[in-house]
UniProtKB/TrEMBL annotation, chain A:
Record lineage: Bacteria, Bacillati, Actinomycetota, Actinomycetes, Pseudonocardiales
Organism: Pseudonocardia abyssalis
Keywords from the named record: Monooxygenase, Oxidoreductase
GO molecular function, one term: monooxygenase activity
Origin: domain of life: Bacteria
Pfam family, one: Phenol_Hydrox
Ranges of biased composition (kind: Basic and acidic residues): 1-11
Protein name: Aromatic/alkene monooxygenase hydroxylase subunit beta
Chain segments carrying region Disordered: 1-33
TrEMBL record, chain B:
MF terms (GO), sorted A to Z: monooxygenase activity
Organism encoding this protein: Pseudonocardia abyssalis
Protein's UniProt name: Methane monooxygenase
Lineage top rank: taxon: Bacteria
Alphabetical keyword list: Monooxygenase, Oxidoreductase
């Protein structure tokens, strides 16, 4: 028997290049050269989050020598700072005018207390974001599956089933619309990479939560006899209790060309006054008494998204603007105006929801008490931002 | 999963009280379009899947550091990554930002779900790529260029060429930008060379981190391709869109070819040390991934819908790469201008020459002597950088549209716009500026079409400046305050490295565009005639020709 000679395989040959850090000394071989040096960290040390988000998007006010190279038909280009009426330090400074022989012309003392100082306190980037949401998805799925196996839905009181199919079901539409048509939408308009990353994350929290509710609804349709999986559509489209909220949600998507107002009105006004009012002060308070330990775990995941994460970036985004060394008064006046516009709408919508507090067998705290809690929470958020709770709150 | 996806469709929203604010417009119409989402992705499965992909990427990163991959990384390769990884995170995050432009103009709530998932994918890509660069900065021998890449990219003419890729996604007609340019051409065609062909070359150069990261990125692209295809089919339903589709396919194809082939072609052909004869050249990769995979199996079948696809431009792109040496001309130009960059460019050796001649017969006659001169002039020894020396090379004019210089000299054309004479690398780039990006197209009102704006010629900003001041102004100087970040060789011995002092004695930078505009009409005509007669590799026109 002969052994066939195989031809030598053609593969790249590894080579020892000694191209590792520290192998030689030369200008820029020191330890200080091994960090991104084009931005100032918010604190003493650069964070991983800052390293992967700061300055990815250029700005003609900084180093972008040749300016934006594509424009819209109306002449606007890139991320105009006028796409919100809010102002941050340096906004009114003109962009450097480059031309023949001007060189780079970059602005040295930039940014100061301006848009580019915003950092998401949640430090969200790819790795943190996927870990967090994958964990939420796993936990929610496990909770629902556990309840399904334990036949936990059999313990629900009769009217709770109707409440969940109509009203918890209706809430999925709100999260979906806010996710897609508020936060995803303004991710194009906001001025920096750090803003847009925070908004995309906020958007995906909401879309995920909406889908969690939809899939929970699907499970309930399969597990509970007579559970009408389409009732949420009827409630959302027709129930008087939901039309006020729907009007506010749709109005949030229809704000005229101001990403700042959309984010502010949603996370500062709508969420505490209507979101937490329904989620925390009605559903979470009612479920246990009606024999339901599952729905709070699904709702609770969305509630955590807002109260522990989305609200945090919102405060970090808008808070400094009310203390801006140049535009504090302008921003406060503007935000107070937004509060005066959105608070009455939200309160009206909240009052339209009042009948929901009477629909279940085991009653939650009184509507007025729930609303007071929501108002108190809202007033706290507003005060922390350096604003006055609007007089409309006492309506 | 199908049931879950079906359920998600119940979330579709028809406004009752307020219509969303329509910030971004399009000249396309979607009156007759069938509305289907081909993607069927729900986040319950999406997040754990992406997390698992991340685990693999970060596990590989950890392994690369522990195993000290950098002992075997080719510096020639990693230096070019200073440019590539400066540019690419911006197009990624811009793609995230372009998605909501489609929410408003594509009346298909089912599809918005897929576009939102693409949006977060793109944020993922941007930060995972920034993180890869961070890892190189920390572990590769020379961090300079990685550590200030975002400032550098904002100032550098190569970065600006790459920025086309990003700004084309986010500005102008929403469908042109976010659908045709981004998903239908850039992602469906050119990510194959970006994220598949290039990683293969990285691995051959001892870098298995870039393939790990970029294959993880590429595995998201199928979602994005589906978004593009669904939108394309919707657009095809309405006869009025044909004219715009055909315009946009021409623009998007040509601009992607000009920009991506210039960059990725150079990285693959001139950034590699792998000179096995049976490894594919960029031309061969292009033929496989773009011509066969995209053109023949994606674009050509669209003809059955009556769409006129730009056969002529695909053939012309191939001709540019195969016959006119487009990639070789670009690599030579990058190397000519090494001192205006922030990475080190290795010269070509006899082994490289032999490979190029084998893959591209006739290469040596065109480019060999110039690269020999490049090596001769690589370390400072009383002479100036190669751009100032007599090596039979004419510094090229810049293309106003794609911003890559007009390197295939015979193709250069000119036009007078708004009182300024502009140069274009090819007739299609002239057409893009003069005809496509205009408020009317072939007599049709196109009020949403974007504009080409900005200071599109880097050289003009520095016209008349001393080179030491140019490089200082851009910030491409190392921590001793005088050694250049860029070098035309890989020797890190400080005695072999160029400094600002060497540049101080050089002639000032002169903008070809400023010079052209100072000519009278006859002078401009003579300039154009001479330019078109210049030879391959930037050789001057024969005297008396």
């Amino acid at each position: 028997m002969t052994t066939a000679q195989r031809p030598e395989r053609s593969v790249p040959k590894p080579q020892f290049t000694d191209a590792e850090a520290g192998a030689q000394e030369f200008p820029d071989s020191g330890a200080s050269a091994r960090r991104y040096n084009y931005y100032k960290p918010a604190k003493r040390k650069q964070t991983h989050y800052e390293d992967v988000t700061v300055d990815v998007q250029p700005d003609p006010r900084h180093y972008l020598a040749q300016g934006w190279i594509y424009g819209f038909a109306d002449g606007s280009r890139g991320y105009p700072l006028t796409w919100t009426k809010l102002k941050a330090w340096g906004v009114d400074k003109p962009e450097p005018v480059n031309g023949v022989g001007t060189g780079n012309n970059h602005v040295v003392d930039w940014p100061a207390h301006g848009w580019h100082e915003f950092r998401d306190p949640n430090e969200e980037w790819e790795m943190t974001f996927y870990r967090y949401n994958a964990n939420v998805v796993r936990q929610t799925t496990q909770n629902v599956e556990n309840a399904r196996q334990a036949k936990a839905f059999d313990n629900w009181t009769p009217n709770w089933k109707t409440f969940v199919e109509r009203n918890v079901g209706a809430w999925m539409h709100i999260e979906h619309i806010l996710g897609l048509y508020v936060f995803a939408a303004i991710n194009r308009s906001c001025p920096t990479n750090m803003h847009n990353t925070a908004m995309v994350v906020n958007s995906m929290h909401k879309i995920r939560f909406a889908q969690d509710l939809a899939l929970y609804n699907l499970t309930l349709s399969e597990e509970i006899e007579g559970f009408d999986g389409a009732a949420h559509l009827d409630a959302w489209n027709n129930d008087a209790e939901w039309q006020g909220v729907r009007k506010v949600v749709e109005a949030l998507t229809a704000v005229d060309n101001d990403w700042g107002e959309m984010a502010f009105a949603t996370n500062v006004v709508f969420e505490p006054l209507l979101g937490e009012l329904f989620r925390s002060n009605l559903v979470q308070q009612s479920a246990a008494g009606n024999g339901d330990f599952v729905t709070p775990t699904v709702i609770g995941a969305g509630e955590y998204d807002y109260s522990q994460r989305d609200l945090r970036w919102t405060q970090a985004c808008f808070g400094p603007l009310t203390q801006d060394k140049e535009f504090a008064a302008h921003n406060k006046e503007l935000m107070q105006g937004w509060l005066s516009h959105w608070v009455p709408m939200c309160l009206e919508a909240a009052r339209a929801m009042q009948p929901l507090w009477s629909q279940t067998d085991s009653k939650p705290p009184r509507f007025e008490d729930s609303l007071d809690r929501a108002k108190s929470r809202f007033a706290g958020i507003v005060t922390e931002l350096g604003l006055e709770p609007p007089k409309e709150l006492s309506q | 999963m199908a049931k879950a996806h079906q359920k998600i469709q119940e979330l579709s929203w028809e406004p009752q009280y307020h219509e969303p604010y329509m910030k971004y417009g399009t000249d396309y119409t979607f009156r007759k379009a069938a509305k289907k989402d081909p993607l069927k992705q729900v986040l319950r499965s999406y997040f754990p899947m992406q997390e698992e992909k991340d685990h693999r990427v970060y596990g590989a990163s950890d392994g690369a550091i522990r195993g000290n991959m950098f002992r075997q990384v080719q510096e020639r390769w990693l230096e070019w990554q200073k440019l590539f990884l400066s540019i690419i995170p911006l197009p990624e995050v811009s793609a995230a930002r372009s998605m909501p432009m489609l929410f408003h103009v594509v009346p298909n709530p089912e599809l918005h779900n897929g576009q939102a998932i693409q949006m977060i994918d793109e944020v993922r890509h941007s930060t995972i790529q920034q993180n890869l660069k961070r890892l190189y900065m920390n572990n590769y021998i020379d961090p300079a260029g990685f550590n200030n890449s975002l400032r550098n990219f904002h100032s550098d003419y190569c970065g600006t060429i790459g920025r086309q890729f990003a700004e084309g996604f986010i500005t102008g007609d929403a469908i042109t930008a976010a659908s045709i340019y981004l998903t239908i051409v850039a992602e469906t065609a050119f990510t194959n060379t970006l994220f598949v062909a290039m990683p293969a070359e990285a691995a051959a150069n001892g870098d298995y981190l870039l393939p790990t990261v970029f294959h993880s990125v590429q595995s998201d692209e199928s979602r994005h391709i589906s978004n593009g295809y669904a939108t394309l089919l919707m657009a095809l339903s309405d006869e009025d869109n044909r004219q715009l589709l055909e315009r946009d396919l021409r623009y998007a194809w040509w601009n992607n070819h000009r920009v991506v082939d210039a960059a990725i072609g150079t990285f693959i052909e001139y950034g590699t040390k792998d000179r096995r004869k049976d490894r594919e050249s960029y031309a061969e990769m292009w033929r496989r991934w773009i011509y066969d995979d995209y053109y023949r199996s994606y674009l050509v079948p669209l003809e059955k819908y009556g769409l006129v696809i730009p056969h002529d431009l695909i053939e012309e792109s191939w001709k540019q790469i195969w016959e006119k040496g487009y990639v070789h001309e670009v690599a030579q130009f990058f190397a000519t201008g090494w001192l205006a960059n922030y990475w080190r460019i290795d010269g070509m050796t006899d082994t490289d020459f032999e490979w190029f001649e084998y893959k591209y017969p006739g290469w040596y006659d065109k480019y060999g002597a110039w690269w020999e001169n490049y090596n001769r002039l690589a370390t400072p020894n009383g002479h100036n950088p190669i751009v100032f020396e007599d090596v039979d090379y004419v510094y090229p004019a810049r293309c106003w549209t794609c911003m890559v210089p007009c390197l295939v000299r015979e193709d250069m054309v000119m036009a007078d716009i708004d009182g300024v004479t502009r140069t274009y690398c090819h007739e299609v780039c002239r057409w893009t500026d003069v005809e496509a990006f205009r408020p009317t197209y072939q007599g049709r009102e196109t009020p949403n079409m974007g504009r080409l704006v900005g200071h599109r010629e880097w050289e003009t900003l520095y016209d008349g400046w001393n080179w030491a001041d140019v490089v200082s102004d851009m910030g491409f100087v190392r921590d001793d305050g005088k050694t250049l970040t860029a070098q035309p060789h890989l020797d890190l011995n400080p005695k072999k490295m160029w400094t600002l002092d060497h540049l101080r004695r050089c002639p000032p930078l002169g903008s070809p565009n400023v010079a052209i505009n100072n000519l009278d009409a006859a002078g401009k005509a003579a300039f154009l005639a001479d330019y078109n007669k210049q030879g391959p590799a930037g050789r001057p026109a024969p005297s008396g020709a």
